[in-house]
Amino acid sequence: MMDPTIDYIKRYLLEEEIDELNINACKDEAALQDIEKPFYEILGQKYPPTQNEQLVASSQLESDLSSSSCSTSKNSNSDTLVWNLLVTEFHKGIEEGKKFLLTINNLATDCKEKTVSADPSEVKYENSATFKLAEKDDLGKISTSRSKMYSSGINLDILEGRNSKISMIDSEEAVRDDVYDKVLLGHGDHRLKGEICSLRETLQLEASLGVPKEIQGDHDKIYTLLIHCSEAVAIYDQRRAQELLNKIRMQSSPNGNGIQRLASVLADALEARLAGVGREYFRRLIAKLVKSPDIYFLKGHHMSIIAAPFTRVYYFFSNSNILNVTRNAKKVHVIDLGIKFGFQWPSLIQAISKRVGGPPKLRITGIEFPEPGFRPAKRIEGVGQRLLEYARSFNVPFEYKGIVSQWESIRIEELAINDDEVVIVNCLFGLREVKDETFAIESPRDRVLKLIRQIKPQIFIHAESNRSCSSFFLYRFRQVLSTYSAIYDIVDSTIPHKVKDRKLLENVYFVPDIINSIACEGSDLKEKPETLKQWQRRNLRACFEQLPVNPDIVKECKNLVRDGYDNRYFIQEDDNWLLQGWKGRVISGATAWKPKLDEGC
Q1: Residue 173 belongs to domain with CATH number
Q2: Which InterPro entries match (predicted)?
């Protein structure tokens, strides 16, 4: 029990504090009145009554009203009147305060909200950015403009209960520096060959020392456990699945050999699916990647091109075809479906700058899906700024437009195609992210191909991985296990265990796809890959004609693969596809198309 004396002292001190606050508030109000009154007089307006004057007025009104009523009703009416006045003042204060608050539209400087819906698929917003570098006689001037674009897609902010997009303050990140130049302009540089050879020497030294026990795993045993566990998860046998997951955890390790690391990721995906939180798990993984700076992905890209020739060969294949069809063009327009970070284009800008007679005007339209978070177009705008910097340094007249949208909803008018330019459509590993006919009566994938036909490009360059994604979980699991067993074997065979960026490469390029393919289902599946034969049939149905692979390009690509890379990689031309693979297995392929001019199409 509290001492009455102490209780009295505390109440006394509290009353003094309240009185002091009231006195200070009155002083502040009086000072504010002295400052504001002259301005009201200049404007010819009457200074509004103060809070005290309003209370006096309300008291007087209360007194006048009460004089004509009985004592009982007087108390009731005065209480009601005072309460109503206070409520009115409260709401008035809120309305005044709202004038100083930014609305949703004002806050979203780069993303104007069109509609807010509880259904994420109905969320629509506008965003597009254009960066221009003037013609050669006016180099150095940059103009920035905004244009409208409509898109719809999953929005993490809506899912998390936030219905406004607020522009985040960008962290200081270089648009271009020596690191970017080394990676993006060094595809044919002797330094890259030196890095490839150095990586192989380190790998050979590591192999000579023997494999540590902690990264030795029984491949067949782990493989069998994974298959049995997927079967238990497919029928939601919680007890059996959990037992097998525990065994997999004992055999796997995020720092082990290839099959151990793959098993660790697959175990996480299976556990998330079993618990019914696959969608949330994948969403949080992607949200984390979205927040990562571009340099993080550049390091992963760098590791991929010194460990494997796949990306390097496809960039060379694409750029060589573009240079061939635009040899005499004065204006070139490249529409890149799935531009990602734009890592392909600095080397093309460099090559165009060396053209005899001077470079053409280059336009690049980069198209991407909206990213989750506050700024769905932040990354694609950064790509434009980076490419603009490269174009300026190589004296190439340049214009860039970024479009963030679901690809099937893009209209040809938004691409602003001019009659006097040679148009190229480039799509490297992007169409697999567009939904197919299993999700809609009119296949979004076919609608994108129809759009490409309407563009009438001089050439349509298309690259995809050679794997399918079944709608049935068990079959899909076996496909993922087979594909990524080969990919993790490539990583183990070409990148030393102690290289830090190896883990980064896996986290950026492999883990998200594995988690999504196994933990998610239905419309939550981000990708729906098809085999190269399936893509070939789809493109032919869409009235495209497949072009033969240029023999000179094939020869150069083979030289790239032989120039320092592991001899278990192979490259070959088959049925108008440029194929790449590992240990006799075709991993991916690239080809070129043009729209048919037949009237029946």
Answers
A1: 3.40.50.150
A2: TF_GRAS
Confidence of residue 106 (pLDDT cuts 50, 70, 90): very low
Burial of 202 (0-12, 13-18, 19+ CB in 10 A): middle
Mean pLDDT of 139-143: 34
DSSP state letters, 433-501: GS--TTT-SS-HHHHHHHHHHHH--SEEEEEEES----SSHHHHHHHHHHHHHHHHHHHHHHS-TT-TH
pLDDT of 119 over the 50 cut = no
In a domain, 445, yes or no: yes
* 12, β-bridge pairs: none
> What are the DSSP calls for 527-552, one per residue?
-----HHHHHHHHHHTTEEEEPPPHH
CA–CA distance, 259 with 251 (Å, rounded to integer): 10
- Do the beta carbons of residue 376 and residue 112 sit within 8 Å? no
**Domain span including residue 178:** 112-195+292-469+527-595
**Measuring CA to CA, how many Å separate 166 from each of 109, 126, 313, 474?**
8, 14, 40, 41
What would the pLDDT profile of 270-329 be if each residue is shown by its tens digit? 999 999 999 999 999 999 998 888 999 999 999 999 999 999 999 999 999 999 999 999
Is residue 88 domain-resident? no
Residue 117 to residue 448: CA distance in whole angstroms: 26
Q: Residue 571 in 3-state DSSP? A: strand
| 480 vs 22, residue with greater confidence | 480
* Inside any domain, residue 80: no
Tokens of 593: 């198309």
Both tokens assigned to 51: 């809070």
Q: What pLDDT, on a 0 to 100 scale, did the predictor assign at position 577?
A: 98
DSSP H or E stretch at residue 398: strand 398-404
- Nearest-Å Rg of the Cα atoms of the chain is 32
| Helices (H), ranges, 209-344 | 219-234, 238-251, 258-275, 278-290, 294-307, 310-325
Measured CA to CA in angstroms, residue 181 lies from 186, 225, 521 at distances of 7, 45, 40
Q: Domain count of the chain? A: 1
Say how far apart CA 601 and CA 599 lie, in whole Å: 5
Residues 42-56: what's their mean pLDDT? 57
Q: How far is CA 411 from CA 145, 415, 447, 450, in A?
A: 20, 7, 11, 11
Cβ atoms within 10 Å, residue 434: 23
Distance, in Å, from the CA atom of 305 to the CA atom of 196, rounded to the nearest integer, reads 9
**Residue 125 identity (one-letter amino acid):** Y
Q: Which amino acid is at 409?
A: S
Share of the chain above pLDDT 70, in %: 69
Region 436-452: mean pLDDT is 90
Cα torsion angle, 216, 219, 224, 226, sign: positive
- Structural domain includes residue 533: yes
